[in-house]
């Protein structure tokens, strides 16, 4: 199979990072400037399209030839840009993405980071950022540059030559990365799933522009009102200014911590010396809630077809290969809890913000509730939304052979009630509304959510969001849950021992259900039943003084600090990785099946799929039946899904 390695340098007046590649290539001034490529081990060629050069006929032909594998680092960009510039279809089945490959192996998702971690001889040219800024994004007009808003090659021929060499070097580095990664191939079925992911991102999901524009206008009007009231009370020119506001509060005898952050606000409100000061603090608190980030992201990302594209990143969420959100971040949308969503969204769309506030209270609340409803079906369609029922609880019970839990899922499925009955030794039938034992359901639910991954009292506290349980009960509830689930507890320790043994002895250790830990070439792999593997880079066994034992340490990206660093892990966390990865594979299997049955997936959130279905075709029953089908590589895993039909996206 011939491999064609590609890297592009482009220009567009649209901000790529904020708006996404599909919006980026829609700009009238979008163009490919440089097209660098190399076949297999041949020298890298750079075609300067600004000099009226054309791609060789062979390259142009091979861009659509299924016998030639096209590859790029972050291939979604190259695919989309090439399709737009040359007016051709770039079938993702013919492409491979080395960024996805790197993420799958627990490596950074950016080229420079991968090259550094792999210690390649070929490294990305550090001058690139400055050259991209000079030639590939608009510039500010100044007297020095003659008032132009864009730099062309003739404005600095020397820099342009550097840009050509930078483009060439990227292909050199990307090819070397690919060669290194080829030792650890990704299964073909995962590349087919990635191709489906690309089709979903290309398809996009329709947005309601009237709704998100009205939401932005409502928020602006409300914030102006709050600022004006604060201005009248304080006499400050800008009550939003932290410096001005802290000085005003200081004059009132109220010392304020740095930032006036929300965690200090209750204490400040209690300490307010008078009603005016208290009201200003309340206004400050309210202004901090007026966030329409999601709506603004929609306004930036929406394309000419009224759809947002490229919202999902394959293999973006750590080493489990789960999807991550991009642009609008659909993976962390607020839940909706008001009952009359349709009335609320129509009131907002009408622009009657006063009525909206009368009906629902302060705008920040209702605007948050309506974010999901901005996603709407295509003309003549409705959404079918379906998700797996308690998928992680099912998978962990299956992995651990916790038979009583599997029996629950194969029967009535009421795992919270059954867990409470098992923990407290009461009849299952008594945990129903109206019976005194029904209060135990909340304890069972929190325990299921908190304890499966070796969580203790702190995990119980985090999951007890409604604060239905006395914190003094947490330690006892953890013990009771563990006593009721001995095989899951056993799984934590067996999993950690398997991983540690595999690294220490540089061997392979088998667990149940096709899971095994395998040490190979300086990497620890957790082989999954689906045929793919989780990867832990540079695994080492180091003493853990906190627990007075040896533990597993590996290198990886810190998702909060955004840096490559060492991580310590343990049995419960390893099991969490396995469970979430297997749950992800179940979703992937269902997505492939739904696609084969003709359903158009427009997005998916965690364990839920959103389908754009023409009215008169398909059904919830059919969709949930597909998602509940047995999976060959997971015999005995009881899957079940539930769904609903809706005219706009919402949480059922």
- Relative strand content: 15-25%
| Share in helix | 40-55%
**Average pLDDT across residues?**
94
Whole-angstrom Rg: 28 Å
Walk me through what this model shows.
- There is one protein chain.
- Helices cover 45% and strands 17% of the residues.
- It is an alpha+beta fold and 652 residues long.
- Among the domains are: 2-185, Nucleotidyltransferase, domain 5, CATH 3.30.420; 208-301 and 334-370, no CATH class; 403-484, no CATH class.
- The strands form five sheets. Strands 11-12-13-14-15-16 form a six-stranded antiparallel β-sheet, covered by helices on one side. It has a five-stranded mixed β-sheet with strand order 3-2-1-4-5. Strands 17-18-10-19 form a four-stranded antiparallel β-sheet.
- A hairpin with a 2-residue loop joins strand 12 and strand 13.
- Helix 21 (440-451) crosses helix 22, helix 21 packs across helix 23 and helix 24 packs across helix 25.
- The protein is globular, with a radius of gyration of 28 Å.
């Amino acid at each position: 199979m011939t491999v064609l390695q590609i890297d592009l340098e482009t220009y567009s007046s649209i901000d790529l990072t904020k708006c996404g590649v599909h919006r980026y290539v829609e700009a009238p001034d979008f163009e490919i400037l440089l097209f660098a490529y190399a076949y297999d081990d041949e020298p890298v060629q750079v075609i300067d399209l600004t000099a009226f050069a054309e791609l060789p006929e062979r390259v142009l032909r091979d861009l659509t030839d299924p016998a030639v594998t096209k590859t790029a680092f972050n291939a979604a960009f190259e695919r989309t840009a090439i399709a737009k510039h040359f007016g051709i279809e770039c079938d993702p089945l013919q492409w491979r993405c080395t960024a996805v490959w790197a993420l799958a192996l627990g490596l950074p998702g950016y080229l420079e980071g991968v090259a550094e971690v792999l210690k390649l001889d070929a490294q990305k040219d550090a001058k690139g950022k400055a050259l991209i800024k000079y030639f590939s994004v608009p510039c500010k007009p100044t007297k020095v540059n003659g008032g132009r808003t864009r730099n062309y090659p003739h404005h600095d021929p020397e820099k342009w030559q550097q840009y050509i060499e930078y483009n060439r070097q990227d292909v050199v580095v990307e090819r070397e990365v690919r060669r290194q990664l080829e030792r650890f191939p990704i299964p073909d079925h995962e590349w087919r799933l990635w191709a489906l992911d690309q089709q979903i991102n290309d398809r996009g999901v329709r947005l309601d522009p009237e709704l998100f524009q009205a939401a932005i206008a409502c928020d602006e009007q409300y914030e102006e009102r709050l600022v004006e009231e604060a201005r009248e009370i304080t006499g400050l020119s800008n009550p939003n200014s932290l410096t001005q506001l802290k000085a005003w509060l200081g004059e009132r005898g109220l010392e304020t911590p740095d930032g006036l952050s929300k965690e200090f606000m209750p204490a400040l409100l209690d300490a307010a010396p008078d009603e005016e000061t208290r009201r200003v603090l309340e206004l400050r608190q309210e202004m901090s809630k007026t966030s329409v980030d999601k709506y603004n992201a929609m306004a930036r990302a929406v394309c000419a077809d009224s759809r947002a594209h490229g919202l999902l990143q394959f293999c973006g969420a750590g080493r489990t290969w789960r999807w991550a959100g991009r642009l609008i971040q659909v993976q962390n949308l607020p839940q909706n809890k008001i009952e009359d969503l349709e009335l609320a969204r129509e009131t907002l769309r009408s622009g009657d913000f006063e009525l909206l506030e009368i009906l629902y209270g302060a705008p920040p609340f209702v605007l948050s509730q309506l974010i999901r409803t901005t996603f709407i079906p295509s003309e003549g369609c409705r959404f079918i939304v379906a998700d797996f029922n308690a998928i992680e609880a099912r998978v962990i019970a299956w992995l651990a052979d916790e038979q009583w839990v599997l029996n629950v899922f194969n029967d009535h499925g009421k795992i919270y009630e059954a867990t409470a009955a098992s923990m407290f030794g009461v009849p299952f039938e008594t945990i129903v509304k109206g019976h005194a034992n029904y209060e135990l359901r909340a304890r069972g639910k929190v325990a299921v959510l908190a304890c499966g991954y070796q969580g203790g009292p702190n995990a119980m506290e985090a999951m007890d969001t409604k604060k239905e349980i006395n914190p003094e009960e947490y330690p006892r509830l953890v013990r009771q849950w563990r006593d009721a689930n001995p095989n899951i507890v056993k799984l934590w320790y067996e999993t950690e021992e398997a991983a540690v043994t595999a690294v220490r002895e540089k061997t392979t250790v088998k667990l149940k259900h096709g899971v095994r830990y395998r040490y190979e070439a300086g990497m620890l792999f957790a082989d999954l039943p689906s045929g793919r593997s989780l990867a832990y880079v540079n695994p080492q066994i180091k003493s853990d003084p906190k627990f007075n034992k040896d533990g597993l340490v590996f290198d990886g990206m810190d998702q909060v600090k955004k840096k490559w660093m060492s991580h310590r892990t343990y049995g419960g966390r390893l099991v969490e990785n396995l469970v979430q990865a297997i749950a992800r594979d179940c979703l992937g299997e269902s997505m492939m099946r739904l696609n084969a049955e003709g359903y158009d997936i427009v997005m998916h959130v965690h364990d839920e799929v959103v389908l754009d279905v023409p009215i008169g075709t398909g059904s919830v029953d059919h969709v949930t039946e597909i998602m509940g089908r047995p999976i060959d590589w997971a015999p005995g895993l009881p899957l079940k899904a539930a769904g609903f039909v809706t005219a706009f996206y919402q949480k059922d």
